Amino acid sequence: MTDTSDSPNENPRPISFNSARFLTSAARLDQCPPDEGVEIAFAGRSNSGKSSAINTLTANSKLARTSKTPGRTRLINFFSLNRPGARLVDLPGYGYAKVTRELKEEWQEHLEDYLLHRQSLQGMVLITDIRRSIGEFDRMMLDWCEHNQLPLTLLATKADKLKSGQAKRALNTMRGELAGHGCVQNVILFSAMKKTGLDQTRKVLADWLDEIEPWAP
């Protein structure tokens, strides 16, 4: 991967997820930052632990908003990293939010617009509560990534809510449900509270950012 800020002969700057800083929020595709560089997006149903996972990965408890009221994240939120052109993206979650049907349809429309047209999107992290089966939203994301050959890592979150043996069995069940989806490169047991899977997830994301040549118009 080439760091556009340095000489082509120099190694790219090592990614530090602790460097993540809020960049901007967008309600629509035309409000997103310039479509260049590399983005890794985080998606998940409301109440899946997505914001907590992002905050743990970046060692910043206030970076992504967490709320006891599911569905509060209604915008696409962009976070910059210490390498120019590298970003993390927090996508709106839905499924449990107590909002009108019209608003849910509007969220879905803007989410699909981003997924279909954002050229700098090069990887997806799908967040799923390990205590729940793969849901309709999860399958929609899996099918989309499969169709578009977008690499996907699944984080089975809230592992601390189960005993070790239960968590391992649930993880194996989840892996079975994902069989046949070639886009799934990793399935990681994750706990924001105990930091289970933190180092493994950071390595996966850093490898993605290092392997992928940044897109520019």
UniProtKB/TrEMBL annotation:
Stored SUPFAM superfamilies: P-loop containing nucleoside triphosphate hydrolases (SSF52540)
Q: Does the keyword Metal-binding apply?
A: yes
Alphabetized, the UniProt keywords read: Cell cycle, Cell division, GTP-binding, Magnesium, Metal-binding, Nucleotide-binding, Septation
GO BP annotations listed: division septum assembly
UniProt key word GTP-binding: yes
Recorded GO cellular component terms are:
cytosol
Outline the extent of the EngB-type G domain: 36-211
List the GO molecular function terms. Answer: GTP binding; metal ion binding
Q: Which Pfam families match?
A: MMR_HSR1 (PF01926)
Q: Name what cofactor the protein needs.
A: Mg(2+)
Question: What family is this?
Answer: Belongs to the TRAFAC class TrmE-Era-EngA-EngB-Septin-like GTPase superfamily. EngB GTPase family.
Spell out the HAMAP family in the cross-references: GTPase_EngB (MF_00321)
**Function of the molecule:** Necessary for normal cell division and for the maintenance of normal septation.
**Can you say what this protein is called?**
Probable GTP-binding protein EngB
